[in-house]
């Protein structure tokens, strides 16, 4: 059968992250490990800055766990840039076996999932999952360069300048356990508004979450936190409506990484944050530490990805999406 | 330790592939399952044509093994296009858990490797690895649209219009065994000529192959075939020189997918074929069937990927590359 829950015996040993100035000024600002006031990270181009963010986030995670590069069996890395160059250039020189991923904003969850499967089965002792996005590199590759000053619609999300790294080992290696995962299926609900990614992704996220509840015989109330990354304000509201129709209404324990990272009133980010770096930074700086401290006992994280490219939208196609689910326990 | 051989107990159950007219006219033409005389595959855009090629290749493989979509536990898919849309759109509607990959031309080897690891450990009964490239979509995203008629240098390779699908199960499921793999590391040797990908990728391929020979205590002569995908004529020649320096000279048993797919004299493809679809089509149509028939007893396949994007080259960066290695046995 296709589409079943994958049982895992892995854990998160430590994390690292880095963000830009806007994210530092947001509600979670103080929780991030490192930020750069001009978002340039001492590099000449936005693309190189994004790569540098991955390098910094990974090195912070390594230092936190007192690891060397040679302690990491494999890297699972990806980003939003054409040909995923943030990861390939950012992680150059590590000399670690490298698996390049592309899952749009779901890449963080995809990487954690694959790293967890491989450590559960002792293929590697330790793996790292690393992802990033940068507002300025994403805007010019996904939409228009920010210098154009293009107007944004109310449903549009703000690409996060951020990177997160997760070092994953077997179940005894870290305090935050990864007990299950459910990879998503690519689903297209016919949305073709590239400024409403939240709506485009909800169908795929609901598909995964509903399958998970059915197969695990659990309900939303059984979890301290259900967090998507990143549907934003618009998508999260539709998510609540869809899950109610499916018979699994989401309560106060549901939120979204794109909602948490910015202050809606103060920061002018419209429907909230998005980008591979959004869930990577929020999960590594806020959710995983909360589980480690016992504030949250268990959590479902569903990374959501819009799998289009600007060319496909210009050619009149709608937006396929995916939702990858991972379960964390304290 | 980082960078060791991964022992596998998987096998290739069946394959499928599809190519364009130029590939059909090449030396391996008669071996391909399906070709389209105008390279459009009944679609309005080159990007959609590439997706359609993945869909056709996958469905041919399924039919050959008498499988339904629901028999496949997970897809590992990727391509060269921005945001990997060939795979996401092409495989829409399969309703199969989907892992998006990006490894440039090494994606075929990366997908086979991950699918083999997951079936070896019974995470899934069966997985599929699917990749593609299309000359016209790749030219306009990687270089310039073909309508411009840009001149090509002698070291440039010709992006193959092709797709290949591999259905992978445990060691008893198919005749062609996958006994070991070694994921590559991202290595940048300072080459910045985007028209000489072969030279840019050789360093990473040699790194993986040399590590493999050392750790497995084997030599080139121990294998009926050592095949890279895709260094082309230029890269393969440098490969021979580098491996001789490393103490592992390659003999008559070494070749490259990019060399095999076109007739150098007759087809004006300069340094040979490249693109995710090159190794995917050559491996699925020629190498794997040759192992199944007993013509080749064992083979090392090293997928090589140039992990740059056009933007990174324009910004003055050199080309990082990777080489993923898989061992097949009859």
Task: Please explain how this structure is put together.
Two copies of one chain form a homodimer. Chain A has helices at 21-24, 46-64, 85-90, 107-120, 135-142, 197-216, 232-245, 257-260, 264-267, 276-292, 310-314; strands spanning 6-20, 35-36, 74-79, 98-100, 127-133, 158-159, 162-170, 176-182, 187-188, 225-229, 254-256, 273-274, 298-306, 320-329. In chain A, α6 (197-216) runs parallel beside α7. With 330 residues, chain A is of the alpha/beta class. The interface between A and B is large, with 62 and 62 residues.
Which features does this protein show?
homodimer; 330 residues; alpha/beta; 12-stranded mixed sheet; two-stranded parallel sheet; 11 helices
Could you describe the largest sheet of chain A, including whether it forms a barrel? Answer: 12 strands, mixed
Question: Tally the helices of chain A: what do you get?
Answer: 11
Radius of gyration of chain A: 18 Å
Which segments of chain A are poorly predicted (pLDDT under 50) over 5 or more consecutive residues?
Answer: none
Number of strands of chain A: 14
Shape assignment of chain A = globular
How are helices and strands ordered from N to C of chain A?
Answer: EHEHEHEHEHEEEEHEHEHHEHEHE
Distance between the termini of chain A: 30 Å
Strand residues, percent of chain A = 15-25%
Oligomeric form:
homodimer
The largest chain-to-chain contact, stated as pair and per-chain residue counts, equals: A-B, 62 and 62 residues
């Amino acid at each position: 059968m296709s589409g079943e829950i994958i049982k895992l015996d892995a854990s998160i040993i430590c994390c690292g992250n880095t963000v830009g100035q806007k994210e530092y000024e947001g509600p979670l600002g103080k929780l991030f490990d490192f930020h750069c006031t001009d978002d340039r990270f001492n590099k000449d181009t936005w693309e190189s800055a994004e790569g540098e963010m991955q390098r910094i986030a990974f090195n912070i995670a390594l230092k936190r766990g007192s690891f060397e590069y040679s302690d990491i069996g494999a890297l699972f890395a990806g980003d939003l840039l054409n040909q995923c160059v943030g990861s390939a250039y950012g992680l150059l020189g590590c000399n670690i076996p490298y698996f390049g991923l592309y899952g749009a904003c779901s890449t963080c969850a995809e990487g954690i999932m694959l790293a967890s499967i491989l450590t559960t089965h002792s293929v590697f002792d330790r793996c790292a999952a690393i992802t990033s996005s940068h507002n300025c590199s994403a805007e010019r590759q996904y939409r228009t360069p920010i210098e154009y000053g293009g107007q944004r619609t109310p449903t549009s999300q703000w690409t996060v300048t951020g990177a997160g790294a997760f070092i994953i080992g077997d179940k005894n290696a870290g305090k935050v356990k990864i007990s299950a995962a459910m990879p998503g299926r690519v689903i297209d609900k016919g949305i073709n508004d590239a400024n409403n990614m939240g709506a485009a992704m909800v169908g795929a996220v609901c598909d995964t979450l509903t399958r998970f509840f059915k197969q695990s015989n659990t309900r939303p109330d059984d979890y301290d936190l259900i967090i998507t990354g990143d549907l934003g304000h618009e998508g999260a509201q539709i998510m609540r409506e869809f899950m109610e129709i499916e018979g699994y209404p989401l309560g106060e324990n549901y939120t979204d990484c794109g909602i948490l990272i910015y202050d809606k009133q103060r920061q002018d980010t419209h429907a909230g944050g998005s980008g591979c770096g959004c869930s990577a930074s929020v999960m590594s700086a806020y959710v995983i530490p909360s589980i480690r401290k016992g504030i949250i006992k268990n959590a479902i994280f569903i990374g959501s990805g819009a799998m289009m490219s600007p060319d496909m939208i210009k050619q009149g196609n709608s937006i396929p999406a995916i939702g990858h689910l991972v379960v964390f326990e304290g």
